[in-house]
Amino acid sequence: MAILRMFINRFALYKQLITGRAKKIKMSKLHFTTKHANEATVTHNWYVVDGTNQTVGRMCAKIAAVLRGKNKAYYTPHVDCGDFIIVINCEKVKLTGNKMDEKVYDNYTGYPGGRKEEIAKDLQKRRPEVLIERAVKGMLPKNRLGRQLYKKLFVYAGAAHPHGAQQPKELKF
Questions:
Q1: Domain assignment of residue 113, yes or no
Q2: Is 101 a domain residue?
Q3: Domain at 44, CATH number
Q4: Which of 6, 82, 91, 156 is most exposed, with minimal Cβ within 10 Å?
């Protein structure tokens, strides 16, 4: 009998919902709502990362996460929540295994015969910043947001950088 009564009550409620005569249900105010970040609520900090004796891939993965803002409680995927990162001593980073001799960086000019290849050892001697920049860029989204995040990365070969006025904090991994 109880099952039949429950079925009748549900059927009556369903009929009211279809006809539009059901009471509007109010949500409880006791629950928490998700806060989405926007340009006005986000704060951007400055951090310095020392690349001395750091493994390139591991360091760049952590840098990419901070650039995206994944270290913050109010991370929102479609908003620039990330911080500014300054990488110093990038000529002292290391690659694991035989990558220094075997990893090939390709560059293509767009013209026939315009493909240039360079191994990591030669690239690190010539332009050490490019190793970090290319690794981080590959870990960011491939869209407008990713290009905006990439502009907040500053890589320098030596220990000096021109961003002292921003008072960057040291970021250790």
A1: no
A2: no
A3: 3.90.1180.10
A4: 6
Beta strands across the sheet bearing 46-50: 153-155, 84-88, 46-50, 169-170
- Whole-structure pTM value: 0.80
- The C-alpha angle 31, 32, 38, rounded to 5 degrees, equals 155
- Interatomic CA distance for residues 83 and 67, integer angstroms: 5
103-151 tens-digit pLDDT:
999 999 999 999 999 999 999 999 999 999 999 999 999 999 999 999 9
Structural domain harbouring 89? 30-93+128-170
Q: 121-128 long-range contacts, Cβ below 8 Å, gap at least 24?
A: 124/91, 124/93, 124/100, 128/90, 128/91, 128/93, 128/157
CA-to-CA dists, residue 52 to 65, 91, 95, 117, angstroms: 20, 8, 12, 26
Asked, for residue 116, whether it belongs to a domain, the answer is no
Let me know if residue 111 belongs to a domain: no
